[in-house]
Amino acid sequence: ADGDLVGGVFAGAADAAAWDASAVAGARVVVVDANLSKDAYAAVLAALDDATELWFEPTSTAKAAAAFAEIRHRCDVVTPNEAELAALLRACGGAPVGFERDAAALA
């Protein structure tokens, strides 16, 4: 990998057939967002080696929780905004604390 972007995801749900595991061979970082299907997440996870970092971009509060449930055990970096973070915390059984705004208003 020479640092070039080797793929992108459309605003939908990409499935495992869209995933090319060879594209990330030797990558230091793989970034996924919440637009993948369960099968695609499984394919991504299977393609990673132990040294590869997995970064996750939640994309939206509506998509964040379900997508994160598929990969949270393997994520190294998650980049939510405040509303997405609140959704992720709720999905993990926690409650957002310390936010200046009421968590219910973020949903």
Automatic annotation (TrEMBL):
InterPro entries documented for this protein: Ribokinase-like
Domain of life assignment: Eukaryota
Annotated protein name in UniProt: Uncharacterized protein
Organism of derivation: Pelagomonas calceolata
